C-alpha cells in the first residue's frame, strides 16, 4: 500500500477539524504549565498542538487505561449477573512518534496471546494511528538501537514526515487510505523530489542521536548466560520502588484486578496498572513473597525487556523512547543497564 501524498501545513487544522466530526481527536498538546501531553482535543482553534517536543507520556492510557471498570456485578441467590461497560469510541491519534506507535504494535501482540483482551481490542479496533516521523531525535531517545524509529516502514495508518512547509503523508493501512479518499482535496500526489527530501530527512535523523546505545550487544550477552550479580546489586540499591519507570513506559502492561463491593449484592471489577518493581507485585495471600524485592524485581524488569521478549517475540519490548531515563531519580534506567552489560563483555 504505502502511497505517498503531500499535505500543506496550513491545511492541517482544517483536516483535523473535519476529522473531529467523526472521531475523538487525541494529539500532543502543550498545557498551561508547559508540559506536552497526549490529550483529547475539543477545539482546534484553542488547543496548542505541539509537534516539536516529546510528549511526557505515550498513548498507552487511552488504549489500556491506568484504571478501568471491567464490569459491574450483581449477586442473587445461586446466580451472578455481569454487565460489561462500554469501553470505546472512534478515535484518531495524531502526532504519535515512531517509538510510541511501535509500542502499540507490541501491545497488540501481548493482549492477543492466549485469550484476546476484548477491552483492549474494542479500543484498538476503533482507533486510527497517524504517526509523526522524528526528524530530530530527543536527548534521551535511542529508537535506532531498538529498530523502532526514527521513521517507520509499517504499522501506521498514516505517517507524516515534516518537510518544512508541508508534510509528506504515507498510507500504510486501509484506514489511512480511507481518510485520504474521503478528504482527497486536502492532498496532492507526492513528487520524486518530495520522496528524496523525506529520505534526506531520514538520513539526517539517524545521524543526530545523542545516545549511543548498543542494545544488540546487550541482548547477545544476556542470551549467553547470567551476568554478574554486582550489576543487579548496584541497580537494586539505586531503585526506590516508585514504579515511575513502569507507568511512563509505553510497553509495560502488567496489571492487577480487584473487586470493589458497592453493596451486599453489587460491585465492580476494576483493572489497574501494576509494576514488577513494586514491593507487593509478587506477594502471596499468606504474606510470603517468593521474590526478593531488592534484587530480583529490577532483574525481572530488564530481563523481560531485553531477553524474555526477544526469545518469545523476536525483538525487545523496549522501544527506545528514553522516558525512563528522564523519570528515574535513582538512575536505574535501561540505558544504564545496557551500558553496564556491554562493559562487562
Features:
345 residues, Aspartate Aminotransferase, domain 2, globular, four-stranded antiparallel beta sheet, 2 domains, eight-stranded mixed beta sheet, single chain, 22% strand, alpha+beta
What is this entry, summarized?
With 345 residues, the chain is of the alpha+beta class. 34% of the residues lie in helices and 22% in strands.
Helix content: 25-40%
Give helix and strand order, one letter per element, not per position: EHEEHEEEHHEHEEHEHHHHEEHHH
Q: CATH topology of the largest domain, what is it called?
A: Aspartate Aminotransferase, domain 2
Q: Treating each run of at least 4 consecutive H or I residues as one helix, how many helices? A: 13
**Strand-residue proportion:** 15-25%
Would you give an account of this structure?
The chain is globular. It folds into two domains: 3-65 and 85-206, Aspartate Aminotransferase, domain 2 (3-Layer(aba) Sandwich), CATH 3.40.640; 215-252 and 280-344, no CATH class. The protein contains 13 helices and twelve strands. Helix 8 (215-223) packs across helix 11. Strand 7 (127-132), helix 5 and strand 8 form a beta-alpha-beta unit. It has helices at 12-19, 60-63, 98-110, 118-125, 143-146, 174-182, 192-206, 215-223, 229-238, 244-248, 296-313, 323-327, 334-344; strands at residues 3-8, 24-30, 36-40, 67-76, 79-84, 91-97, 127-132, 158-162, 166-171, 188-189, 255-261, 266-273. With 345 residues, the protein is an alpha+beta fold. The longest helix is centred in the C-terminal third of the chain and has 18 residues, at 296-313. The strands form two sheets. An eight-stranded mixed sheet has the order 3-2-6-7-8-9-1-10, with helices on both faces. It has a four-stranded antiparallel sheet with strand order 5-4-12-11, with no helix packed on it. It starts with a strand and ends with a helix. The model has no long low-confidence stretch (mean pLDDT 93).
